[in-house]
Write a structure and sequence with these properties.
Elements: H1 3-11, E1 14-16, E2 19-21, E3 25-34, E4 37-47, E5 52-56, H2 63-70, E6 78-83, E7 86-87, H3 93-98, E8 101-104, H4 116-120, H5 135-148, H6 164-176, E9 182-186, H7 194-209, E10 213-217, H8 221-227, E11 230-235, E12 238-244, H9 250-258, E13 276-285, E14 288-296, E15 300-305, H10 311-319, E16 326-331, E17 334-335, H11 341-346, E18 349-352, H12 356-360, H13 367-372, H14 376-379, H15 387-400, H16 417-429, E19 435-439, H17 447-462, E20 466-470, H18 474-480, E21 483-488, E22 491-497, H19 503-510
Parallel strand pairs: 5-10, 5-11, 8-9, 9-10, 15-20, 15-21, 18-19, 19-20
Antiparallel strand pairs: 1-2, 3-4, 3-6, 6-7, 11-12, 13-14, 13-16, 16-17, 21-22
Length: about 525
């Protein structure tokens, strides 16, 4: 951090009305080192009561490490932490939580077999007479939190029956249950749709009015201008800048994050192929109701819709993970029954899951093993795996995707969320499939890495690969898709070309208004 940056941070004060607002939480000059890596190098963060502070930076910038130092998961190697005017050093997350600091982690920490209410109050269950759990009180309090978030969940339902986005809302409800002074939200909207995001924003505004200090971490820059008051930017573990949102533009934020100007965010290339690679007719499966569409060679087909619309159910049916009940799936003119994921892979259909930890990667294995796991047939010699060939291929993908890892043998669990996502996508692209299905492909990925992923997708698209992209990120769907299908309650309610699609048209179909063929 330069001297001018330190001075700028020192001199900046937040004033509301005629009162100077002092930080409720202040991290100053934080240093954190791991073997061979300086993860934080003079990082700063101010959290003000009644304000929302955006914490921004590329994957690997040190945001998550800073939050772990703040909450006592990691112990700092240098710097100071002040909370409510006193210098503190939390010994662990339980201590920081008891002092009024809660964090909603990007990766879900729920127990699928337990109910929503049990997950929210795990370890803090309300007790009745004779030391027994007061189930009625627990369900009642859980229902209040769910109502605050405007989600129609039964608190007695098992969490395992919820989608990833719905589980994210449960994580948010759990954090709200602590009545904290400081609440950290790490990528809270990554799995949420527009409707769920607006519900979250309503809660954030309410918490801000109550004087809570909010730290908001997101790669969706349009959200920063919607909900945040201030911005702190990090790069390579260092503090770069703190400023009011009103003084910044999206381009300026991106330039500070990546250290350079970034051109067009959605570098879409056109498609000219009329060759039909995939044809789906009257498909019925679990969560899918009579769906029909075609996918052309070298085309990106976007799938939009609200949470629970059946988007993931539909693409899993194409891959064989949600076996079809009736209907026809035709690949290259040949009718094919997708009875299992193994059959889907054999036919050249690859699915990259929205849940990278649960379905996409083995976190206790390394980058090399994860990437090559589904491609061993092409990397093997007569007797065993050709290790030299395997390393060459993996290293090539690591370089092309700019995956930040000390080595290709680094365990997946030690990578940032965005780098994990890039490994998951590279794993699928390594197979060079006919049809690549990307379910929330840039979830938890920063703006610089997003563009790298888009450019690689375009490279494979230019070579004729057909791509289906499910995304809750409306600008991403609009920016990268050649055509867009909108789903509602398991049905397709609208189809739009890239040129005619708008956010308003997609949202109208997403809530159930069917678009008739040829309609404007």
């Amino acid at each position: 951090m330069s001297g001018s940056q330190r001075q700028g941070l020192k001199e900046r004060t937040v004033i509301e009305g005629k009162s100077i607002v002092e930080p409720v939480l202040k991290l100053s000059g934080i240093v954190k080192e791991f073997p061979g890596v300086k993860a934080l190098d003079g990082a700063n963060l101010n959290v003000y009561p009644g304000r929302v502070m955006a914490l921004l930076g590329e994957n690997g910038a040190g945001k998550s490490t800073l939050m772990k130092v703040m909450t006592g998961i990691y112990q700092k190697d240098g710097g100071q932490l002040f909370y409510q005017g006193q210098e503190v050093s939390f010994k662990g997350p339980k201590e920081s939580q008891e002092q009024g600091i809660s964090i909603i982690h990007q990766e879900l920490n729920l127990i699928p077999e337990l109910s929503i209410a049990e997950n929210i109050f795990l370890g803090r269950e309300p007790m009745g007479r004779f030391g027994r759990i007061d189930w009625s009180a627990m369900y009642r309090e859980a229902q209040k939190l769910l109502d605050m978030l405007n989600v129609p969940f039964d608190p007695k339902s098992p969490v395992g029956k919820l989608s990833i986005g719905e589980q994210q809302m449960v994580e948010i409800a759990k954090a709200l249950s602590f009545s904290s002074h400081v609440i950290v939200m790490d990528e809270p909207t990554d799995a949420l749709t527009e409707k769920e995001t607006e519900s979250l924003f309503r809660v954030i505004r309410q918490l801000r009015e109550e004087g809570k200090g909010i730290v908001y971490i997101s790669h969706r820059l349009q959200e920063i201008f919607q909900i945040c008051d201030d911005v702190t930017i990090m790069r390579d573990g260092k503090f770069i800048d703190e400023a009011p949102v009103a003084e910044l533009t999206e381009d300026l934020i991106i330039e500070k994050m990546v250290g350079r100007a970034l051109s067009e965010q959605y570098p879409r290339i056109g498609t000219t192929s009329d060759n039909t690679v995939l044809k789906v007719e009257n498909l019925v499966a679990s969560g899918v109701n009579n769906v029909s569409f075609e996918l052309k060679g070298g085309e990106i087909l976007g799938i939009s819709g609200l949470m629970g619309a059946g988007r993931t159910d539909m693409v899993k049916a194409l891959y064989g993970a949600n076996p079809e009940i009736s209907g026809t799936i035709t690949l290259d003119g040949i009718a094919t029954e997708m009875t299992s994921p193994a059959r889907g892979l054999a036919k050249g259909v690859v699915y990259i899951s929205e849940d990278r930890k649960g379905d996409g990667l083995i976190v206790e294995m390394g980058v090399r093993e994860n990437m090559s796991l589904c491609n061993l047939k092409n990397l093997s010699g007569l007797i065993a795996i050709d290790e030299q060939r395997e390393r060459e291929v993996v290293e090539d993908f690591v370089a092309r995707f700019n995956i930040k890892t000390p080595s290709i043998d680094q365990l997946i669990k030690n990578l940032s969320g965005g780098n994990q996502q890039k490994v998951a996508i590279a794993k699928g692209l390594m197979l060079q499939p006919k049809v690549l299905i990307l379910d929330e492909p840039t979830r938890g990925v920063d703006v610089g890495a997003r563009k790298e992923i888009y450019q690689l997708i375009n490279e494979f698209k230019a070579n004729g690969m057909s791509i289906i992209m499910v995304s809750s990120d409306m600008p991403e769907v609009l920016g990268m898709s050649d055509r867009i299908l909108v789903m509602h309650e398991g049905r397709i309610t609208g189809e739009f070309s890239h040129e005619e699609a708008t956010q308003e048209k997609l949202l109208r179909c997403a809530v159930g208004h069917r678009r008739e063929a040829g309609a404007a």
